[in-house]
Amino acid sequence: MPLVLFLHGSSGLNEQTRRYQRWLNEALGVATLAPDSFAIPNRPRYRSPATIAEYETVHRLRQAEIQTALAALPLLEWVDRQRLVLAGSSEGAVAVARWRGDEFLGRIIYSWTCEDNYFVDKADNGFAEDCPILNILSDSDPFFGASSEFNRGLAVLGDSRAALREMANARMVILPNAPHTLYNLPAARTHTRDFLLELLA
Questions:
Q1: What is the pLDDT of residues 76-92, one digit of tens each?
Q2: pTM to 2 decimals?
Q3: For the stretch 115-124, what's the b/e string if a residue is b when 16 or more beta carbons lie within 10 angstroms of its beta carbon?
Q4: DSSP-derived secondary structure letter, 46
Q5: Is 42 left (phi over 0), alpha (psi -120 to 50) or beta?
Q6: Which portions of the chain are predicted below pLDDT 70?
Q7: In Å, how far from its chain's centre is CA 93?
Q8: The dihedral of CA 166, 199, 23, 88: what is its sign?
Q9: Are residues 43 and 78 in contact, defined by beta-carbon separation less than 8 angstroms?
Q10: Which one of 60, 84, 196, 200 is separated from 132 by 20 to 30 angstroms, measured CA to CA?
């Protein structure tokens, strides 16, 4: 089966994540793996606003989760390793954007703007120019939006226009009045479905 490797946000694995996984399987016939970042012993945590060093410690750990999951795939004979997709939300989406490997057909980035802001030392995006990307954002994201209290005084767009400008296979979708965690919204599901059906065809 094709597989979506999904990295949860800072709230961890929860019912939102499980609903998303069930939907991918039942509606699209796609399997998912969602590593539990908080199962890691002595996993570092933060409370925003935190220092850049605290955020970056977590971002490095989330990158390692992708590497660990990829290393485990040979044990899962039912996974079609030619049809892998990397997806994540918020904190998890930072790792998705930064990943430098070419193991995945495409990436889905929920609620992360792929730009320099309070949450990262620098965006440090790792995707290639021809990488298929679906980026879904809220027009009023309380964390990464242009008017976020955490971004006060920083030159941010609050979206991924600059990061994705030269990428012919990238789509940025901005949902009006959407909450930060938005991947289960009907509009987000529609765009996700269309992206995956095209990518995995």
A1: 999 999 999 999 999 99
A2: 0.97
A3: bbbbbbeebe
A4: -
A5: left
A6: none
A7: 2
A8: negative
A9: no
A10: 60
pLDDT at 121: 97
Give the tokens for residue 69.
């999951």
Please state, in angstroms and as integers, the Cα–Cα distance from residue 24 to each residue in 5, 28, 142, 146, following that order: 11, 5, 27, 31
Residue 55 exposure: Cα atoms within 13 Å on the Cβ side? 19
Q: What number does CATH give the domain 3-199?
A: 3.40.50.1820
Q: Is 85 helix (H, G, I), strand (E, B) or coil?
A: strand
DSSP letters spanning 157-187: -SSSHHHHTT-TTEEEEEETT--S--TTSHH
Q: Tell me what pLDDT residue 76 has.
A: 95
Q: How far is CA 15 from CA 8, 11, 104, 184, in A?
A: 11, 11, 26, 11
Question: Is-contact 132 169, C-beta < 8 A?
Answer: yes
pLDDT of residue 94: 98
pLDDT at 160: 98
DSSP symbol at 150:
G
